[in-house]
From TrEMBL:
One Pfam family recorded for the sequence: HATPase_c_2
Lineage, highest ranks first: Bacteria, Bacillati, Bacillota, Bacilli, Bacillales
SUPFAM superfamilies xref list: ATPase domain of HSP90 chaperone/DNA topoisomerase II/histidine kinase (SSF55874)
Keyword Transcription regulation attributed: no
GO MF terms held by the record: ATP binding; protein serine/threonine kinase activity
Protein name (record): ATP-binding protein
InterPro entries (alphabetical): Anti-sigma-factor_SerPK, HATPase_C_sf, HATPase_dom
Keyword entries, A-Z: ATP-binding, Kinase, Nucleotide-binding, Serine/threonine-protein kinase, Transferase
Matches recorded under Gene3D superfamilies: Histidine kinase-like ATPase, C-terminal domain
């Protein structure tokens, strides 16, 4: 498998589903497609709503690299960044159906490693085995 490394720039969420589908096509993966789509959707949505405060003039940078069945994703917004962000390891049953608050949890559950540094979320995923 040939390595893939690219960057995509978005403004707003107008075409983000189409762009996510293009990223999936570009990666040419047969496994983990649902996981990667959901990770990208949640990370991009969080960048727009929370990082860029829904400002469509601010860009979202999506960088991805696939090499040797290891996928690295970075989603960077134009916000001020976050000093310390906790990725929840569970969701309380009382808040399971809340309007928001599950995105970071889902990203954490579907990734091998996730970290937020300033205004960029770094996500690592092993795509060699579809079942974790």
């Amino acid at each position: 498998m040939e390595p893939v490394q690219k960057e995509v720039i978005l403004c707003c969420l107008e075409h983000h589903c189409y762009i996510i589908d293009e990223i999936i096509q570009d990666l040419r993966l047969d496994v983990c497609v649902f996981d990667i789509k959901l990770i990208l959707h949640e990370a991009i949505t969080n960048a727009h709503y929370h990082g860029n405060n829904r400002d469509c003039k601010k860009q979202i940078y999506v960088r991805y690299m696939l090499k040797d069945k290891h996928l690295k994703i970075q989603v960077e917004d134009c916000g001020d960044g976050i000093r310390k962000l906790a990725f929840p390891d569970k969701i309380d049953n009382l808040h399971l159906l809340d309007e928001g608050g599950r995105g970071l949890y889902l990203i954490r559950c579907l990734s091998d490693n996730v970290e937020m540094i300033n205004n960029t979320i770094y996500i690592d995923k092993d795509v060699s085995n579809p079942i974790l």
